[in-house]
Amino acid sequence: MPQKIGFDLSSLGAGYLQKTWMLQRTFNWQLIMPRNFRGNIGFLVSQYCQDVNFGDYRMSELSTMRYGAYQRFYAGLQSIDSVTLTFLVPIDNSVYDYFYSWSELIVDVHGHYHPKNEYKHPIYIIMYDRTGIQATKFTLKGTFPINKAAAGLSYNSEGVLMLTMRMSVDSIEPSSFLGDIREGITNAIQGVVGKVGGALGF
Question: How many domains does the chain fold into?
Fold first, then answer.
């Protein structure tokens, strides 16, 4: 959206100057769970997701270390408690079946835990800008459900049944399609400038 720059340069013959802000509105987004459990296709189950909450990155308390006559401070590790996914529940109960089947990979019928690499799987969240182009992709690595699928049943309301699942996550890695393009262009330009500078003896 064009907007005046906030101070008057008309006396300098620059009254036409303006700045342009391209601001992002609410994203269109899509959750993608690629794994299939007991005949339930993750991609189809993903379409019932209505809400995703993740993040709350926090630094633990600062660590200090003596460095000569001074102290040097170090940030602690980033930690994420969990990711919360909210789903509509379809009549075929595929969402329930999907997460119950996933939970069964964690603990078997005898109460024994399986190795983590057998039940942790990545989840992807893709956000699109207002033109429909992929703006950002979040890769949620090492996710698995940490609560059983549950629902409150009541005849007092006739609302659509919802299911909220909390997921443990090892790490969240954001990536930007446009950012990758900008990085590629910048690296190419820097490479050309470096070669020209080398040819000129700089």
Answer: 1
